[in-house]
Amino acid sequence: MAKRKDIKSILVIGAGPIIIGQACEFDYSGTQACKALMEEGYRVILINSNPATIMTDPETADVVYIEPITPDVVKKIIIKEKPDVMLPTMGGQTALNIALSLAENGTLKKYNVELIGANLKAIKKAEERESFYKAMKKIGLDCPKAQIARSVKDSYKSLKKLGLPVIIRPSLTLGGTGGGIANTKKEFDEIIKSGLHNSPINEILIEESIAGWKEYEMEVVRDKNDNCIIVCSIENLDPMGIHTGDSITVAPALTLTDKEYQVMRNASIACLREIGVETGGSNVQFAVNPKNGRLVIIEMNPRVSRSSALASKATGFPIAKIAAKLAVGYTLDELDNEITKVTPASFEPTIDYVVTKIPRFTFEKFQVTKPLLSSSMKSVGEVMAIGRSFNESIQKALRSLEVGFEGFDNVKETSSQKPLTKKNILTELKKPIVDRVLLVAQALRFGKSIKEIFNASKIDPWFIGQINEIVKKENEIKRKGLPKSAYEFQQIKSMGFSDKKLAQLVSKKSEDILQIRNKLKVFPDFKRIDTCAAEFKSLTPYMYSTYKKNDVTNKFCESRPSNKKKVIILGSGPNRIGQGVEFDYCCVHASFAIKKMNYETIMINCNPETVSTDPDTSDRLYFEPLTSEDVFEIIRREKLNGKLMGVIVQFGGQTPLKLSSFLEKMKIPILGTSVDSIDLAEDRERFKKIAEDLNLLQPANGIAFSEKEAFQIISKIGFPAVIRPSYVLGGRAMEIVHNKEELKKYFKQAVIISGDSPVLIDSYLKDSIEVDVDAISDGKNILIAGIMEHIEEAGIHSGDSTCTLPPYSLSEKIIENIKKQTVKLAKALNVKGLMNIQFAIQNNNIFLLEVNPRSSRTVPFVAKATGNQIVKIASKVVMGQKLKQNDLKKQKSNFIAIKEPVFPFKRFPNVDTILGPEMKSTGEVMAIDTSFESAFIKCQLAASNPLPQKGTLFVSVKDSDKAKILPVIRSFSKQGFKILATSGTAQFLIDGGVKTKIINKVSQGSPHCVDALLEDKIDIVINTTETRKSINDSFGIRRTALIKNIPYSLTVSGARASINSIKRLKAEDITVNPITDFH
Question: Is 936 exposed, middle or buried (0-12, 13-18, 19+ CB in 10 A)?
């Protein structure tokens, strides 16, 4: 074996918080890499700031630092840990940029740290656009015509040479941040400024627009002996102009001829060699002009990329794991293929099925932004589905999204909410809208030709033809009804039609379709992912379902259920705002824990980015949609052998909970908290009665089944009030209303109220402190895992609040009272497993807000802060064991941990940064230290929001905050900050003895506060606001601060935390410590 013996310790750089453009696929890759390197006996040191992931578990590496990923902090870790080498290719753009920074400032050389995986020269050659284009021209590869610009003046010179439209790509950014397609001078001006600002080296590439061309990706792996393999070819269904992360993609590439594929394969390998990526995985992107076949290379990532996770799951070839081993000296022929166990990793994977990835968007959270896609990424997650044909694969993917699709559903409105007609559909198809693939089917239903649809959408005619087959089959079913023979029925199912979709087509219920299938014995087979198109036997039970077979017998099924006692864990589906990687974390830990109890664990999930869908996380993996039909078919198959103990629904968020009633109806045992207990907590009327029986306070509330009832409830409880639909996650369509006009507007715009969908109305507890509690219960014994205090006042969604553990301002008496109420509730609801409770403290009164009898998004944070494996303990309870007091180790008292959310506001033009009861954050960072201030400073650094130590503070606050803000502004002034304020706030501060300069509001004309922000005359902002008018008036302040990366506080408590932390920052430098030092 050629493993390097001169290396003893390796520093792995993580990717930081989940953000658009850099999500949990890097957690999956990083976790795999750490595991692979520890297997080889190296001492692995990890830095990452994200608490929500498996990667920051203390067991993932020998030493885990949950610290901000900045050059200064990484330098401190290098000094402390003295690593021999650094692996920067697993942490996305964040890790590469850190490697570049530390190499260029001399840190790596000074402390003798070698870069492995990709060296400095290779990183710069690939990432700096000018260097990359020169390298490609040298080896004869064509690139789009382009110009490099490093200033606004340069940009306009480039525009003269290229002409509009152009694509603008900032250097060293992720997910196309700051870039886009400019069709007009105005768009050009906006995008170049944004691009130059977002590029850490102030460099943008301005290139000829190749929007509308076909896009392909190649996942390539190379070892030190120059063995190169293509792991996977990927084709974008969407044309160029839409970021590849936002495109529907398929693997393998389906519309290339063999000759075209070989040309692209050779070009990918030549690119890797020229850039100088000696070992590991890289992603190479190409575009092809459909008119003449001209091939151009777009870019290459000299690291594990977003697509690497997809390619790993699509083929069964673990790119990150192999890349990590190649980085320490192995060659591909020395490593085994983990799926077959008999072939080497140098065998190029071959797949005999079709994989489809569809991104998951949450534009509904940012309604002022049009749901249009561009070269700047917008999606927050993705699903993957596997089938024996494109049709089967894409229909499975559509229903995996959890947005209500059952396949190619009818589209009735345009993106501007006008009726969709035969006349306007081609115009609509020209727009890069989110669900354009559904419009293709709709256009076919309207009788449009494949050529017309291609000309409008630039989607390849082959894909349109496949969708046409689905539409024709739909029409046939509507006309003739369902077939009577098993063979014909199975043929329909093999095109990916769900029972629910078939039921819609023939006006029946999905239960009726299931009965017909049962009678005809039409069931899916399960095939194994084998990396070799069935050439060798797959020993890894990684499976997908298909109806594609030669006859209706089951002899083609490869599932081979074991005769063991088994447990099925339902995953959390695609990442989205409100349900992120935290829930995947819980599912993974449940699988690990239940395996140790000698049960076989079976994971069902459809998210390619996560650790739960790593084939070696559970004993068996089914990569399938989380729908009642798909889950039931797996259960039916697994029950054929061994003993199914039951299904776990409490770890995957709302996704599996929605299936619990169906499973109960089908007499499938649910392990842990019962369906009735779940409903008891979710059903407002039943829950209200429990709270009353236990003498617990709740905010005045009511349920309205009509708009009239809502006004009647409001007349009793008064304004302001919190209003929301029932049964939602992440505060979807939740608002605080202050008057009748806002209430009317809510019903007009936010929800459709009905007898089936009531709205919940609560009195808004002003100036209250919100508290989160995570607990574990076996029905009789209850352990409090963590009590968290929110820094922001109640009314901001708990997922968007910064919170501390332990609480930093609550009295012992309040904390004891919270514990007692938690115990009462756990017993009354008969919770068996995890539960999360939210309270609000107002004038020393404890109000109960809500109870979730399932895992919550705070579970990983509590586990990292306390050192307690909460999910492991809860899993034992779920499997029938009793809790013991010593299951939780006692927390140390010399620390405080803070969790802070990160937001995607920059990606969504015209969106306000003001927070409320509807969740907006995509991820979070964590810091832990010996004081609140030190931890808060680190959180700001980790969230890319560093606090200034001097400069000018701008402040504008609502009247009710003026008395509370005065001592905070005094502290800023004493620390040497100049104070700028709008007239009302300024007068109050001057009267309070603070030297303040008055600046105009925007409405008062220039020079005003936004001008000062744009001219870099302000270093930090405090802005609190309340009424709709003042929120609108001050929008420009918040949006400009965001775009200019100026730190801002939108609450008094946040401003107070900032100044206290600035004082600490001035007094002492930050220190770094492994997470286990606090356990």
Answer: buried
Q: Which residues of 647-673 are buried (b: 16+ CB within 10 A; e: fewer)?
A: bbbbbbbbbbbbbbebbbeeebebbbb
Contacts made by residues 201-204, CB under 8 angstroms, sequence distance 24+: 201/128, 201/171, 201/172, 202/150, 202/151, 203/128, 203/129, 203/130, 203/148, 203/149, 203/150, 203/170, 203/171, 203/172, 204/129, 204/148, 204/149, 204/150, 204/155, 204/168, 204/169, 204/170, 204/171, 204/179
Distance in angstroms (rounded) separating the CA atoms of residues 1000 and 162? 42
Task: In whole angstroms, give the CA distance from residue 114 to residue 99.
Answer: 10
Confidence of residue 1036 (pLDDT cuts 50, 70, 90): very high
Average pLDDT over residues 294-309: 90
What are the beta bridge partners of residue 957? none
Q: Over the stretch 615-636, which tens digit does the pLDDT of each residue have? A: 999 999 999 999 999 999 999 9
Q: Among 123, 116, 134, which Cα is nearest to 171's? A: 123
The Cα 146–Cα 154 span in angstroms is 13
**Residue holding tokens 């033809």?**
465
Q: At what angle do helices 25-39 and 306-315 cross, to 10 degrees?
A: 70
The DSSP line for 61-93 is SSEEEE----HHHHHHHHHHH--SEEE-SSSHH
DSSP class of residue 852 equals: E
Give the amino acid at 313: K
Q: What whole-number distance in Å separates Cα of residue 412 and Cα of residue 632?
A: 32
Q: What is the overall mean pLDDT for the chain?
A: 92
Cα dihedral 55, 58, 63, 64 sign? positive
For residue 449, give every residue at least 6 positions away whose Cβ sits within 8 Å of its Cβ, in sequence order, or none: none
pLDDT for residue 848 is more than 80: yes
Residues for the chain: how many in total?
Answer: 1079
Other beta carbons within 10 angstroms of residue 1007's beta carbon come to 12
Residue with tokens 């105005």: 186
Of the listed ranges 432-436, 914-918, 998-1002, 1062-1066, the one predicted with least confidence? 914-918
Write the pLDDT tens digit of every residue in 139-155. 999 999 888 899 999 89
pLDDT band at 753 (very low <50, low <70, confident <90, very high): low
Question: Is a pLDDT exceeding 90 seen at residue 551?
Answer: no
Euclidean distance between CA atoms 760 and 727, whole angstroms: 10
Q: What is the edge-to-edge ordering of all strands in the sheet holding 180-182?
A: 146-149, 204-208, 166-170, 180-182
Instruction: For residues 755 and 753, give the distance between their C-alpha atoms in angstroms, rounded to a whole number.
Output: 7
Check residue 536 and report its DSSP letter: S
Burial of 479 (0-12, 13-18, 19+ CB in 10 A): exposed
Residues 171, 169: Cα–Cα separation, whole Å: 7
Q: Rounded to an integer, what distance in angstroms lies between the CA atom of residue 317 and that of residue 1035?
A: 48
Q: What beta strand segments (E) does 695-758 contain?
A: 701-704, 721-725, 735-737
Rounded-to-integer distance, Cα 1011 and Cα 1006, Å: 7
For residue 358, list its beta bridge partners: 383
Count the neighbouring beta carbons within 10 Å of the beta carbon of residue 763: 20
Q: Six-digit token pair at 123?
A: 């990183």
In the structure, what pLDDT confidence band is assigned to residue 536 with cuts at 50, 70 and 90?
low
Residue found under tokens 């501390």: 804
Identify whether the C-beta of residue 95 lies closer than 8 Å to the C-beta of residue 81: no
The three-state secondary structure class of 171 is coil
The yes-or-no verdict on residue 300 having pLDDT over 70 is: yes
Cα 780 from chain centroid (whole Å): 36
SS (H, E, C) 85-149: EEECCCCHHHHHHHHHHHHHCCHHHHCCCEECCCCHHHHHHHHCHHHHHHHHHHCCCCCCCEEEE
Q: Say how many Å lie between the first and final Cα of the chain, rounded.
A: 38
If you average pLDDT over residues 159-186, what whole number do you get? 85
Give the pLDDT of residue 552: 46
